[in-house]
Specification:
There is one protein chain. By secondary structure, the chain is mainly α. The chain has a single domain, classed as MFS general substrate transporter like domains (Growth Hormone, Chain: A, Up-down Bundle), CATH 1.20.1250. 76% of the residues lie in helices and 0% in strands. The protein contains 21 helices and no strands. It is globular and about 75 Å long.
Length: 493
């Protein structure tokens, strides 16, 4: 093997990587998710500065996510064909982030300066958004396609999910605090200055995450860590064979896409209604998020660190999904039969009564189970890619990653439409509810369903899919041994 290999390869063909590189590369997912969070606010921009209705704004997000998914197979094919001086993955991280930076700036800084004609503004926004989502796909696909070359150690792969979940929670805390601060500064989401601030923070943090991720993956983004360590030509026929024969990725796609749909339907509007309208004091949202997030991080790390590394990733996904069903149900009961208004004094101060304590505890445990179920699917794509090498001899991480992303995005694209339609059905067809909206039972019921009911549906689908998923811990050990044997035979020849 090449000189770099001896630094990372162990016995039986297992190649590992220092822990800090796993943590650093997981930031590539956060780099794209910062922009994804920015786009959760797009409905406010479209209704406030472009002039479209709520249903149109929600449909826009759905159509764009479908376009995002359609570009995945094309870009995945390009990734699988790429093997240059800078590796298979790093060029797409750079290209993707630059496109995201420029296109998002144009969307939120130029559109409202055009003539006050909603057709012209909406058409312009759509064209720029099409380019934006190409950049998003470029960078997003690498999070999955680079997993097999990062490490093939069954005990190391779940560690990506640990760091990814920690950084995801930190990012969500930051975003919630940012939203509260911006609302306090501007008084409304319908402000061009607010969108400028959100864009600037997003661009800077995403850029930093991308740089760290590139540095982290650099020594492993090499040919000797791709599949069996030799170039295997793949064509469109091989893609069809993989789609038809790889049961593992088929089942993982079902599990991941339903999870993503449930998570994405929890738009910023849902939290605004739950805390700002039902509780009646949105100012406490940042503090609540911090109170629930710290124990969530601890629980998630313990769950993934013990269950995934000892029992395997499949069992970790099953346990996480089952726990999420139980605690989401308990949270529904709490909101329906408890007194949410007892959480606050109405002036930004939390009251630690029975409802608040139960909410914090149940949310932390539920987020731990849900986080384990949703984050473990990313390193599981590496298992699916290795399974394809074992099954057919083809190393196609781009295909595996983009197939995963394609269906994931196609299904999750329905989330803003689902939320928009449900709020429109109860009277919010022109503007979404915000902190100034008066309370109603219909708002409570719709928001509870979007927050917890969709989660139950999503994780229940996980349990069904995992029943047919073939890659348990023992099977993965067999696969890695076979790939190592292939490498040994090739080296001898």
């Amino acid at each position: 093997m090449k000189e770099v290999s001896s630094k990372y390869y162990g016995e039986n063909g297992i190649h590992r990587v220092p822990l800090w590189r796993i943590a650093g590369f997981s930031l590539n997912n956060q780099a794209t998710n910062f922009y994804l969070m920015l786009m959760t606010m797009v409905s406010y921009y479209l209704t406030g500065f472009v002039g479209v209705l709520v249903i149109t704004a929600s449909s826009f997000s759905t159509v764009m996510r479908i376009w995002d998914g359609v570009t995945d197979p094309v870009i995945g094919f390009i990734v699988d064909k790429t093997n240059g001086r800078w590796g298979k993955n790093r060029p797409f991280m750079v290209i993707g982030n630059v496109i995201l930076l420029v296109s998002s700036f144009v969307m939120f800084h130029v559109t409202h300066l055009l003539p006050e004609n909603k057709v012209i503004r909406f058409a312009f926004f759509i064209v720029v958004a099409l380019i934006y989502y190409v950049g998003y796909t470029f960078q997003c696909v690498v999070t999955k396609s680079a997993q097999p070359c990062l490490t093939n150690d069954p005990k190391q792969r779940p560690q990506f999910a640990i760091f990814d979940n920690i950084f995801m929670i930190v990012r969500q805390i930051f975003f919630q605090v940012l939203c509260v601060w911006l609302i306090g500064k501007y008084g409304t989401y319908y402000s061009t200055e607010l969108f400028h601030d959100m864009w600037l923070v997003t661009a800077v943090l995403s850029g930093i995450c991308t740089i760290i991720a590139i540095i982290s993956i650099a020594p492993k983004d090499r040919e000797e860590f791709y599949g069996t360590g030799k170039v295997v030509k793949v064509g469109l026929k091989d893609y069809w064979e993989t789609l038809k024969g790889n049961r593992a990725i088929q089942m993982l796609v079902i599990a991941a896409s339903t999870d993503k749909l449930a998570n994405q339907v929890k738009t910023s509007t849902v939290m605004i209604v739950m805390i700002g309208v039902v509780v009646g004091d949105y100012a406490i949202n940042g503090t609540l998020t911090m109170l629930t997030s710290i124990p969530t991080i601890i629980i998630t790390v313990v769950f993934i660190g013990t269950m995934a590394t000892r029992l395997g990733q499949k069992k970790a996904l099953v346990i996480g999904s089952a726990g999420s069903v139980i605690f989401s149900t308990l949270l529904i009961a709490l909101w329906l039969f408890g007194d949410p208004t007892s959480m606050s004094d109405g002036n930004g101060k939390i009251i630690f009564g029975a409802f608040t304590i139960l909410y914090v505890l149940l949310t932390a445990v539920n987020s731990g189970f849900t986080g384990m179920a949703s984050s473990i699917v990313i390193p599981m794509t590496a298992d699916c890619a290795d399974y394809e090498v074992y099954r057919s001899g083809k190393y196609v991480p781009g295909l595996i990653g983009t197939l995963f992303s394609f269906v994931d995005k196609l299904v999750s694209s329905l989330s803003p439409l689902i939320a928009g339609v449900m709020y429109a059905a109860i009277g919010f067809s022109e503007n979404l509810p915000d902190v100034t909206t008066p309370y109603s039972d219909s708002l409570l019921y719709v928001s509870i369903f979007l927050m917890y009911g969709m989660t139950i549906i999503g994780v229940a689908a996980n349990l069904i899919a995992m029943h047919f998923y073939p890659l348990n811990k023992e099977k993965m050990e067999e696969i890695q041994e076979e790939i190592a044997a292939i490498k040994a035979r090739d080296a001898a020849e």
